[in-house]
Amino acid sequence: MTGVLPIGLANSTRVIGNVIHSVKEYIMLVQLHESVPVNIVEKALENFKGRIYQKPPLRSSVKRTIRVKNIYEIEILDHYEKFVLVRVLCDPGTYMRKLAHDLGLILGVGAHMRELRRTRTGPFREDETLVRLQTVSEAVYLWRTSGRDDLLRRAVLPVEVSVAHLPKILVMDTAVDAIAHGADLAAPGVVMLTRDIRTNSKVAIFTLKGELVALGRALKGVEEIAKMEKGIVVKTTRVVMPQGVYPDFWRRRKKGLEVSE
Q1: At the top level of CATH, which class does the domain 166-249 belong to?
Q2: pTM of this prediction?
Q3: pLDDT tens digit string along 58-97?
Q4: The CATH number fitting domain 23-121, selected from 3.30.390.30, 3.30.70.3190, 3.90.170.10, 3.90.1640.10
Q5: Residue spans of alpha helices (H) in the chain
Q6: pLDDT of 39-57, one tens digit each?
Q7: DSSP character for 246?
Q8: Could you give the angle at the alpha carbon of 6 between the alpha carbons of 122 and 184, nearest 5°?
């Protein structure tokens, strides 16, 4: 398999799991064991849209138990004799070779996966942000030998890009350091939030400058949070920003010192 593989550096490794376990897109070449008209193949693929039951293949790194996965989009890109090129947008952990095998069962002719390319992982796609490992190696060499960092800046993206697909909450400067110490987000610290926040959904917590502070789980939906004046609204699950980047207003309040906003 080839394609998109996000790699985290330094503190960004704390959120890379959130990227890996997000929506995936694949381009798969399926070889049917007998020729089938393309309209029949298209009709068979309709069976895979939505929620499907899938048991991992024999050669897999997970326990072989039946799992429920979602196929959000599936379509034929090209068809030639026994070969079918298919695009699939799905949940993480969906096995494409099992999908190809099951397609062959439905068609009654048998099938297997010949080639696979991952074209999307979460917010990362095959676009102008994609670079090869060779490019990264060259960028690091130029930076070390001549101080040039333009190629390195193109190859290494800010950690904020990795959570572009998540709902977001902007918080006051006075709340940042407390969250960096692992505190949950309380309603008074919220400044702005996106409309796609749902109860129990993952959210990204940002400063007013657009810096990623932490990831968390929303305890309320967007409408409830907007009306709250006190209480916890997000349970912090993964801190990204180092402690001490912002002033420790929370310590000053504990000591009864005056805090100027």
Answers
A1: mainly beta
A2: 0.84
A3: 777 778 889 999 999 999 999 999 999 999 999 999 999 9
A4: 3.30.70.3190
A5: 16-20, 38-45, 96-107, 133-146, 150-155, 173-180, 222-227, 249-254
A6: 999 999 999 999 999 988 8
A7: S
A8: 65
